[in-house]
Structure formats: structure tokens, C-alpha cells
Specification:
two-stranded antiparallel sheet, three-stranded antiparallel beta sheet, 81 residues, globular
């Protein structure tokens, strides 16, 4: 699986099947992911990221990529399937 840098623009990967990977052990609970992409991410009672949809499409994928860019702990990765 090829990993893409979290700074990649969402428009640069359109048409390529993508998956979202979270590293909950790296999460610091900032919550940007859940704010930016609430259909893809949530937080548990401790504020740690929970992945709701590992294969978002369309606008949800765009939001997930934005969340990955905003994550201060870099706990979210966008990877090709």
C-alpha cells in the first residue's frame, strides 16, 4: 500500500481508490478530525480518534484528507488501496 503525504491536495488523487488509516496511539485528542469530517471520524470518551468510515467517497474523502492535514499528531494517514 502506497502512503501519500498528508499535505497532498484532495484534487490530486481523485479517481484513485483511497483508504483512511488512523493511528489511535498517536492521537492527542485535538478533535480537528471529528469537526472537519464528522461522517468519517469521531472521538471516544477520552477524546481519541475513532474511524467510522475507512473508505469514504466524494466530499467525505475530501474532508478526511483535510482532517489528516489538520491533525497535529499526524495520527491520520491517507493511503491508496
Amino acid at each position: 500500500m502506497q502512503r501519500l503525504e498528508s499535505t497532498v491536495s484532495p484534487r490530486e488523487y481523485r479517481g484513485v481508490p483511497m483508504s483512511i488509516v488512523v493511528h489511535s496511539d498517536a492521537c492527542v485528542g485535538a478533535g480537528q478530525c471529528a469537526l472537519v469530517a464528522p461522517d468519517v471520524f469521531d472521538q471516544d470518551d477520552d477524546g481519541i480518534v475513532m474511524l467510522l468510515d475507512p473508505d469514504p467517497q466524494g466530499a467525505q474523502l475530501d474532508a478526511a484528507v483535510r482532517a489528516a492535514r489538520l491533525c497535529p499528531a499526524r495520527a491520520i494517514a491517507v493511503a491508496s488501496r
